UniProtKB/TrEMBL annotation, chain A:
This is DUF881 domain-containing protein. Residues 34-116 form a coiled coil. Gene3D superfamilies: Protein of unknown function DUF881. InterPro entries: DUF881. It comes from Lysinibacillus xylanilyticus. The lineage of its organism: Bacteria, Bacillati, Bacillota, Bacilli, Bacillales. Keywords: Coiled coil. Transmembrane segments: none annotated. It comes from the Bacteria.
Automatic annotation (TrEMBL), chain B:
It comes from Lysinibacillus xylanilyticus. It is a multi-pass membrane protein. Belongs to the sbp family. This is DUF1290 domain-containing protein. The keyword Transmembrane helix applies.
């Protein structure tokens, strides 16, 4: 150190050298933290912008949903008008009675109307856990079981069908989604309660055929319970808004 | 006298130009380091004015204070206590005291000078 001091005496004394190092470090720390703070400020402002954007999108969405609701209400009102018109038509011309009845049936199928009347209720439940079976697929309800049941019900003249309270329409889709099934985008877990409006005697007979749907379901370790209901009510299918 | 100032400017530029991101957990350490550095700097100026300046004390104080503050913050993070507040408090108080002392010394000097000038003009 003494050597260094001596050699650089005239240009850089030891004291000054130390001071220089301290000052450089100091400047570095201050500049660096200023930079850091600036970055933080920038990040904060972009966050705020994003939030505002999100808010405006949300408001737009709400407005759209309200508009959808208004439109669907309008559609319902128009539907009602058509029905009234048809009914008045019947009064004047009895020949058209059949056609109107058919139209009513089709509306039920489309889920445009609240369905109400005699029917049956079928509950499908996953089988009890079976330690011998390694594969849980062997005792849970799959969408294929639901398909079978629905097809059978439709063939035997069910007028309206609902699963866990959601109307199944002519153009509904059912999808397997792991342990749940998706009906028109809504997920439903087991147990599945399938309600069908129609002639309950025919429906029950159709399901209980030897080797029929119930037998097949029981074969697949599913707990099936069937009951008759004098007055089933189902809501009309809601238009997704 | 101009060399330390140049160093300060150089360090400042270096700090502004580096663009390394540090995790937000360590921002406490940075703020403490800034405080410690400022404290030592003003402490050095005060010592110089009081004519008790010792470069060994100054340099060792500068680095040791920064290290101590960072260590305290580090310990605080692991103990779940906001120990860095202690460092901030201590350095903050000392910073104000040092600046107050510097201000007083400068004021007395100013007064003395004025007196001398007055004397000179009277004479």
């Amino acid at each position: 150190m003494m050597n260094k001091k001596n050699s650089k005496e005239n240009f850089l004394s030891r004291k000054q050298f130390q001071l220089l190092i301290v000052c450089v470090t100091m400047g570095f720390i201050i500049g660096y933290s200023y930079n850091q703070a600036k970055d933080n400020r920038d990040a904060g402002s972009t966050n705020k912008e994003l939030l505002e954007q999100e808010d405006s999108y949300r408001e737009e969405l709400i407005a759209q949903q309200e508009r959808n609701k208004e439109l669907s209400e309008e559609a319902n009102a128009l539907q009602e008008k058509i029905r009234k018109y048809e009914k008045s038509f019947v009064a004047s011309k009895k020949d058209y009675t059949k056609l109107v009845e058919e139209a009513e049936d089709l509306r039920l199928l489309l889920g445009d109307l609240n369905a109400e009347g005699k029917g049956i209720r079928i509950t499908l439940q996953d089988g009890d856990y079976n330690p011998k079976s390694a594969n849980p697929n062997d005792y849970i309800v799959h969408e294929s079981h639901i398909f079978k049941l629905l097809n059978e019900l439709k063939i035997s003249g069910a007028q309206a069908i609902a699963i866990n309270g959601q109307r199944v329409l002519a153009n509904s889709y059912i999808r397997c989604n792991g342990p749940v099934i998706t009906i028109d985008g809504k997920q439903h877990p087991a147990p599945f309660v399938v309600e069908a409006v129609g002639d309950s005697a025919t429906l029950i007979a159709a399901l209980n055929l030897n080797g029929g749907v119930v037998d097949q379901l029981l074969n697949d370790n599913i707990v099936v319970s069937l009951e008759e209901d004098q007055k089933l009510t189902m809501p009309k299918a809601k238009v997704e808004s | 006298m101009w060399l330390p100032f140049l160093g300060l400017v150089f360090g400042l530029a270096l700090g502004l130009l580096t663009n390394i991101q540090i995790p937000s957990i360590y921002e406490n350490y940075l703020s403490i380091a800034v405080l410690a550095a400022l404290d030592t700097l003003f402490g050095g100026i005060r010592a110089q004015l009081q004519q008790v300046y010792d470069d060994k004390v100054f340099v060792s104080g500068f680095f040791f204070n920064i290290a101590l503050a960072a260590g305290l913050a580090f310990l605080g993070v692991y103990l779940g206590i906001d120990l860095y507040l202690a460092a901030i408090f201590a350095f903050g108080v000392r910073l104000f005291q040092n600046i107050a002392i510097i201000r007083r010394i400068l004021l007395t000097r100013l007064d003395e000078k004025r007196h001398e000038r007055n004397k000179n003009s009277i004479e």
